[in-house]
Amino acid sequence: MPSLPRVSREVQLAAVPDGLPGPEHFVLAEVPLPTPDDGQVLVRNRFFHVFAALRTLIGGGVKDAPVPPLRPGDTLVGPAIGQVVSAPGESGLRAGDLVSHWLGWREYALVPVGQVAPLGDALPDPVAHLSQGGFAYAALTRDAEVRPGDTVFVSGAAGGVGSLAGQIARLLGAGRVIGSTGSPQKADRLVRELGYDATVIRGAAPIEEQLAKAAPDGIDVYVDNVGGDQLRAAVTAARPGARFVLIGALSGQMSPHGTGGAAPVELDTYQLILKRISIRAFQGFDEQARSQWLERFGGWSRTGDITFPYVRVSGIDHAPRALREMIEGRHFGTVIVEP
Fold first, then answer.
1. Which class in CATH covers the domain with range 133-281?
2. What is the architecture, at CATH level 2, of domain 7-130+309-338?
3. SS3 of residue 186 by DSSP
């Protein structure tokens, strides 16, 4: 085993921003290489995921959220893939094993044994374990119960969840898949690369008008990553008995105003009742759902039926800039840093 460094670099929050976070709100700190105790695994991180909810954690979090808010001096967190450096003998882990865990944004992580998961060989590319496609799969199969022939609308279709959701909906038998995004360039890629039938572009025209043209017969399923005016437009376009599943709230998280912890929207309750629209919050991603997703994702990946769009950013020192660019919508798919 190569000799280990004496220090590890990690990205810490330097100040709580007034608005959207930028590189100036973070510091790249050098800390002593952590020494594991009994029950801890030392991991050399190889990749970590830059995800939208960080904006909310940085801004002060949301009451009752499963992850506490970040305070100045805290190291950022997020899904990561790394190699085991050392582990307790009874853990079953060996040096060099690839594992997933939650302590990204640092070169070396000290993780409790119970919070690391061996990757196994379910997926041909280890980086694909950082995909958020499992959320889309669970939302479509369990929460919205997509059916053959359904017209599915996905908001935030060029993001980490949406870039997989459209492909999954198609593989599950959807008859027409529509996605929303923020630019003509991304809209073109959604159709050309990911199999979307049509798109709506924020700011090009009222969302309701664009969605009416893209889905003249209405929508049966709505996978909501955004909220706001897109959720309102989906209610207008809904067919009787439509099923909505709420996964994210990017309209609030990416707003330059506030802390990213609220995404208010006004809906016409009368339309919800008349159309018998069911709106369900995403019910989580448990071990059963994860196991099923990995099996299907691996199979679809090996046959070329699905792709995992992602942007790889090299260098932990570029991670704060990658976060700001993700918030600004500059990237397509999942944003991953290779420290």
1. alpha beta
2. Alpha-Beta Complex (3.90)
3. helix
Q: What is the pLDDT of residues 150-207, one digit of tens each?
A: 999 999 999 999 999 999 999 999 999 999 999 999 999 999 999 999 999 999 999 9
Quick one: which H or E segment has residue 255? none
pTM beyond 0.90, yes or no: yes
Among 32, 39, 45, which residue's Cα sits nearest to residue 76? 45
Alpha carbon distance 36, 23 (integer Å): 31
In the block, which residue shows the tokens 């085993």?
1
Domain coordinates in residue numbering, the chain: 7-130+309-338, 133-281
What pairs with residue 84 in β-bridges?
A: 43
Token pair 């979307």 is at which residue? 196
CA–CA separation, 173 and 236 (whole Å): 24
Q: How far is CA 103 from CA 50, 108, 231, 326, in A?
A: 12, 9, 33, 19
Burial of 67 (0-12, 13-18, 19+ CB in 10 A): middle
Closest by CA to 119, choosing from 133, 98, 134, is 98
- Output the CA torsion sign for 214, 280, 323, 316: negative
